[in-house]
Specification:
The protein is built from 15 helices and no strands. The protein is mainly alpha-helical. The chain is globular.
């Protein structure tokens, strides 16, 4: 087997992949700001942590229930146009939120009208999330050769995290500077720019050859593949548990307002701190491949995430909270890159939509369900104890999976990469 020198910019040498990264940055940047604005506005209207949790439930239900069918559709459809349709529909959500908050400011609509309107648009966003995940997962594999999937996964994941950094930071500051309504207007413009860029990517072939499969057979094949592969199942479970119990993004408004007395700017800083560690992760993982001892790196990264979330939950100081969230972001970034690399290398081309959908069910939907869990736990135990308990559960689950799942613990993707380079 021949070994090729690692090229940290391998994926960036493909024009369409660069366009994809720019689109993904704009979308995630806008989505991150939109999340910040919604969370802040709902808490300002209700002063209820449970209301923040309901936002997560509104997005979780459609995303989880529709995801398997979305994966089936993604495998059967042309990916570029499907991505464009998803972006166009996302722009309607952004415009709807802009229109809703504009009328609330100008005509003093009742609080419940605005609140239920926000919940309805978030629900629609959950439907779109079911399609966004598998579409993006499938499209990446059509933009670069298989031998550089790990590098592409690193850049894609890091772009996602980096967009979260600036989106969260800008969201908090823009709320303070220009208000909720104008911030949502900026988000709409960003989404429209992404929609224009998507047509700079050529249409892609449909790789699913199972034309005679029924919907039931196709969905069953995708689920069986994931649940029979201990490596993929273990990786998805780890990330799901970390996000579901260890995450606390949904109640950052509570910490910023009631515990740290940091206001909207501090709210933006807290959200940005969690993702800002990914910038270091991006630089490190592009130069230092994560394919060696992959399983152990995944276990350590999720464990580290849980430890620093516990520190955040216990902190009463803004600077300590920011540091804890920063290092949580570092470990979370490593976990994301490792998981995406595992999925890209281990998933057959004809099943990418369905596997991407299961990934969305495990990880993407757990963001929203985690928001509900955080809201309920904060209501029952208080926000600090809720985060500490969630981080502790994360550590316990990592220890159990590390002890029980030997294929994941011993996973090393170095051979997979070298075999692909020899082909």
């Amino acid at each position: 087997m021949s070994k090729t020198k690692n090229d940290p910019y391998a994926a960036l040498r493909f024009k369409e992949f660069n366009i994809f990264l720019l689109m993904r940055f704009l979308l995630v940047f806008g989505w991150s700001m939109q999340f910040i604005v919604i969370e802040w506005q709902v808490y300002a209207l209700t002063k209820s942590p449970l209301a923040l949790g309901i936002i997560g439930l509104c997005e979780f239900l459609p995303a989880f229930l529709i995801a398997p069918f979305a994966g089936y559709i993604v495998d059967k459809k042309e990916k570029r146009n499907l991505f464009a349709l998803c972006i166009a529909l996302f722009s309607l959500i952004s415009f709807g939120l802009f229109w809703l908050t504009s009328n609330y400011v100008e005509t003093s609509w009742p609080t419940n009208t605005v609140l239920y309107g926000i919940y309805s648009l978030v629900f629609f966003g959950g439907v779109l999330r079911a399609f966004f995940g598998p579409t993006i997962f499938s499209l990446i594999a059509l933009l670069v050769p298989k031998k550089i999937y790990p590098n592409a996964a690193t850049w894609s994941s890091s772009t996602w995290k980096g967009a979260n950094v600036f989106g969260a930071l800008c969201g908090g500051f823009l709320i303070a500077w220009i208000g909720v309504n104008y911030t949502l207007g900026i988000i709409f413009l960003l989404v429209m720019l992404a929609l224009l860029l998507v047509f700079q990517i050529a249409k892609k072939p449909i790789l699913n050859k199972g034309n005679n499969e029924s919907v039931k057979e196709s969905l069953k094949a995708g689920l069986n593949f994931v649940f029979n592969d201990k490596v993929i199942l273990g990786a998805l479970t780890l990330d799901m548990i970390a996000v579901l119990f260890g995450g606390a993004v949904a109640i950052f408004a509570v910490f910023a307002t009631d515990i740290l007395d940091a206001g909207p700017k501090g709210f933006g800083i807290l959200n940005a701190a969690l993702s800002s560690g990914s910038i270091i992760t991006m630089l490190a993982t592009t130069y230092i491949p994560i394919t060696k001892s992959t399983g152990k790196k995944l276990l350590v990264s999720v464990f580290g995430f849980g430890v620093f979330m516990i520190i955040f939950g216990a902190s009463k100081l803004l600077w300590l909270s920011v540091i804890a969230l920063f290092f949580s972001g570092v470990f979370d970034g490593i976990s994301m890159v490792v998981r995406q690399t595992i999925l890209q290398l281990k998933t057959p081309d004809e099943m990418r939509g369905r596997v991407g959908a299961v990934n969305s069910m495990f990880v993407g939907s757990s963001n929203e369900l985690g928001a509900l869990e955080s809201g309920i736990a904060a209501r029952l135990f208080g926000a600090p104890l809720a985060v500490i308990l969630g981080g502790s559960i994360t550590l316990i689950i990592v220890a159990i999976i590390g002890a029980k799942n030997q294929p994941l613990r011993d996973l090393d993707l170095t051979k997979d990469i070298e075999d692909d380079q020899d082909q």
